[in-house]
Amino acid sequence: MDSNGREPEPTTDQPRAVGDDSPDDRQQQFTRARVAEVLDVSVTTIRRLEGRTLHPHRGQDGIHLFDRTEVEHLAATRRSDRRQSHRDTQAGQISAAAFALLKNGTRPSDVVIELELPARVVEDLHESWERLNNRHVIENKVLEQLRRAVVYGVLDIEFLEGIEKNDYAAILNHTSEKRLTRTKAIWA
Predict the structure, then answer these.
(1) β-pairing verdict for 64-67 and 29-30
(2) CA distances from 118 to 86, 102, 123, 139, 173 (A)
(3) What is the enclosing helix (H) or strand (E) of 66?
(4) Residue 81 belongs to some domain of the structure
(5) How far apart, in whole angstroms, are the C-alpha atoms of residue 123 and residue 112?
(6) Are 98 and 122 in contact (CB under 8 A)?
(7) Which residue range is the domain that position 152 belongs to?
(8) Are residues 72 and 104 in the same domain?
(9) Is residue 66 part of a domain?
(10) Is the same domain home to 150 and 182?
(11) pLDDT, tens digit, for every residue of 20-49?
(12) If phi over 0 gives left and psi between -120 and 50 gives alpha, with beta otherwise, what is residue 59?
């Protein structure tokens, strides 16, 4: 009580009693039906969430009441999860379209044009495509250096062709033949 003998006005700092069904309290709480409406699920689903995700209390009239903040937080989380799921689906569709073009022999630069995707995205998808097919992506500057090595006689053309075609069997065969020829020359 204050000096005039009146009860002080409750402030937002003061905790409210659980189960207080004052009009202000009711505005901060939702019934099961209202929570189901906000989350766009059935009342049965709300009952399943009780005690795990939602933590209701019983009002003085026996009705389960849910904290508005907790419900709004859960609604925001569920919306975010749905958006992420939608983004994942879109990313999967983009990957599938790019892979279909790459499978048909379309060059990555043409995939960029065809699907109207950023070059970096297509580069990443191309690397994934090659890796998933047990192949490697060799950058153009490295390939150019290998071509120069062929010109200067440091590398055999068959070896380079095997690299360009991702034909590792040909590379190994060629390497084995060279090694065998060199070994014969040494022991002859």
Answers:
(1) antiparallel
(2) 20, 16, 9, 18, 39
(3) strand 64-67
(4) no
(5) 9
(6) yes
(7) 140-187
(8) no
(9) yes
(10) yes
(11) 455 455 567 889 899 888 888 888 988 888
(12) beta
How many domains, in total, are found in the chain? 3
Alpha-carbon distance 94 to 144, whole Å? Answer: 31
Q: Please report whether residue 18 resides in a domain.
A: no
Rounded Cα–Cα distance for residues 130 and 150 (Å):
25
Task: Name the residue among 51, 57, 49 with its Cα closest to residue 28.
Answer: 57
Residues 93, 123 within the same domain: yes
Between CA 171 and CA 160 the distance in angstroms is: 8
Do residues 57 and 18 touch, judged by C-beta distance below 8 A? yes
Is the pLDDT at 110 greater than 90? The verdict is yes
The confidence score (pLDDT) of residue 101 equals 93
pTM: 0.37
At 48, which CATH number? 1.10.1660.10
Distance between CA atoms of 67 and 96, rounded to whole angstroms?
44
In a domain, 176, yes or no: yes
64: helix, strand or coil: strand
Q: Which residue has the tokens 């419900």?
A: 71
Is 97 within 8 Å of 91 (Cβ atoms)?
Answer: no
Q: Do 104 and 70 belong to one domain?
A: no
69 plus 32 within the same structural domain: yes
Those residues whose C-beta lies under 8 Å from the C-beta of residue 121, and which sit 6 or more positions away, are 94
